[in-house]
Amino acid sequence: MRILLSLAVCCSFSAQAMAHDRTTTTPETIIAPGAQEKDPKELALDKMVQQIDADYVAINEKSLNIRIVKIEEGEFEAGCAVKANVTYSNAAGEPVEKIERWMAGDATEEMIEYYYKAGKLFFVLRKQVYYPPNTADKPVQSELKIYLDKGKPVKYISSQGDTYQTMDFKAEVKEGVALYKAKTKEQTRDAICPAD
Questions:
Q1: Element (H, E) at 49
Q2: Each residue of 113-165: pLDDT tens digit?
């Protein structure tokens, strides 16, 4: 009987301890059971992504001046898009903060938005619509967000899941940089469809 009573008391203490299970790492620092600390690099990346998202929202809330460059059918080299529009947006007297590039091919439409801060590309938003040959089928839409740090992609988020794992997004970065530098219609066209 004493053994059973001892076991009951012991189990009672164990249950109370489990209910209040806390792992103390340093004085006044408590980590919840099962919680893991985030890697400092991961925390820094999360903070960077939050700042980029905030800058994206701030640019889109501004009233910006626009300049549109239209590239009509037949102006591209063979193997490139059919036609395109590029919209440059900036506040009066300020550098370009946003470039939108819309392009249409045979069965697709693509809109890429490039965002700049102090002349540096920091974010790319690519939206695509594919129109299936069978007109009864619904168009397929996808979206891809590319976050950059010092001109290099550091994170992406795809509406299609992890389909971009092996991509380095050099083409998007190269186009965004070339469009920013373009001053003429020909330079804009060549940024979208480079000769190389």
A1: helix 40-61
A2: 999 999 999 999 999 999 988 888 899 899 999 999 998 999 888 887 765 55
Residue 149 · residue 48 · CB < 8 Å: yes
- Token pair recorded at residue 176: 């965004």
> For the sheet containing 152-158, what is the strand order?
65-71, 83-90, 98-104, 108-117, 120-130, 140-149, 152-158
**pLDDT confidence tier of residue 80, bands split at 50, 70 and 90:** confident
Q: Where are the beta strands (DSSP E) in 150-191?
A: 152-158
Q: Are 41 and 49 in contact (CB under 8 A)?
A: no
Taking phi over 0 as left and psi of -120 to 50 as alpha, with beta for the rest, 93 belongs to left
Q: Which amino acid is at 180?
A: Y
The pTM is what? 0.75
- The string over 101-121, giving b where at least 16 C-beta atoms fall within 10 Å of a residue's C-beta and e elsewhere, is bbbeeeeeebebbbbbeeeeb
pLDDT at residue 3, as a whole number? 39
Task: Identify any residues that bridge with 86 across adjacent strands, giving them in sequence order.
Answer: 69, 101
How far CA 175 is from CA of 13, 150, 151, 169, 187, in Å, comes to 65, 16, 12, 10, 11
pLDDT, average across residues 11-40? 47
